[in-house]
From TrEMBL:
ATP binds at residues 32-39, 159-162, 188, 196-199. (R)-pantoate binds at Q63, Q165. HAMAP family: PanC. Belongs to the pantothenate synthetase family. Catalyzes the condensation of pantoate with beta-alanine in an ATP-dependent reaction via a pantoyl-adenylate intermediate. It is an enzyme of class 6 (ligase). This is Pantothenate synthetase. It comes from Corynebacterium propinquum. Pathway: Cofactor biosynthesis; (R)-pantothenate biosynthesis; (R)-pantothenate from (R)-pantoate and beta-alanine: step 1/1.
Length: 288
């Protein structure tokens, strides 16, 4: 497995890989590291579908508050050696792990904080997670666009846990005519129902127990325990150790609120548990 740190070397690897076989396909799994079983499911899908699998490991400052000048960015878990070993065991061909300076030349030194050209996500990037984290999805769309330009994958793999991110990336490739097939993979949950996330590493034992309230509330909403999103939100807000941001029922395609009882739909929630902001979602299928 190759570990690659520069754009030029990554381009060269992809070009050489494509020249060595007839009509080879490249699958990309973009990550910020701190890898877990959810990432493994993405890599396995990419490995099954493609001749070459590339995983990126890059903690992108553009999608954090104040372009990374915040504790969330500084405290984000980083261990490239462990991540590389994890990916090697899954059969990844190359890991692209650039520095911030490599991805955004001048970012750490220029007074105007590069890059100057961003991909804007409009209304879809301003609601829900975007309202709580202004500019977050513009940062996501910008780095994903750069990765697609550098690696030029045939397919890219994302988890459905980040439902808003997935919807935005699907719109990105559609609206900008990018020749990349986007694959959304199901949420991987722990035995306690908590959605796998790199941020879970920062939860204490008690906080992990408190975090189960998110998935329990979503499943309760799906199963008819709550009559509305507002009732489910009120319940979740009352749970021990949970500081609720939002819980809404939306259209999966454009993330707009839908009337109570609409199916199919998507229930989205976000909440702070201790020092960690967690998100989760659950599909609400059509009534039989």
């Amino acid at each position: 497995m190759h570990i690659i740190h520069t754009v030029s070397d990554m381009r060269a690897f992809c070009a050489q890989s494509r020249s060595g076989m007839a009509a080879p396909s490249i699958g990309l799994v973009p990550t910020m590291g701190a890898l877990h079983d959810g990432h493994a499911s993405l890599v396995r899908a990419a490995r099954a579908d493609n001749d070459i699998v590339v995983a990126s490991v890059f903690v992108n400052p553009l999608q954090f508050t104040d372009l990374g000048d915040c504790d969330d960015y500084r405290n984000y878990p980083r261990d490239l050696d462990a991540d590389a070993e994890f990916l090697r065991g899954l059969g990844v061909d190359a890991v692209f792990s650039p520095s911030v300076e490599e991805m955004y030349p001048g970012f750490n030194t220029a007074p105007d904080r590069h890059p100057q050209i961003w991909v804007r996500t409009g209304r879809m990037g301003e609601i829900w997670e975007g309202a709580s984290r202004p500019g977050h999805f513009d940062g996501v769309a910008t780095v994903v666009t750069k990765l697609f330009q550098i690696i030029q994958p045939d397919r890219a793999y994302f988890g459905r846990k980040d439902a808003q991110q997935l919807a935005i990336i699907q719109a990105l490739v559609r609206d900008l005519d990018m020749p990349v097939a986007i694959h959304g993979l199901p949420i991987v949950r722990g035995d306690d129902g908590v959605a796998e996330s790199s941020r879970n590493l920062r939860l204490s034992v008690d906080e992990r127990r408190h975090a189960t309230a998110l998935s329990q509330t979503l499943f309760g909403l799906r199963d008819g325990k709550f009559a509305s999103a507002d009732e489910a939100a009120e319940h979740l807000a009352s749970c021990e150790g949970v500081e609720l941001d939002y819980l809404r029922i939306v259209d999966p395609a454009d993330l707009r609120d839908v009337p109570a009882g609409t199916r199919p739909a998507l229930a989205l929630t976000a909440a702070w548990v201790g020092p960690v902001r967690l998100i989760d979602n659950l599909a609400l299928e059509a009534h039989e």
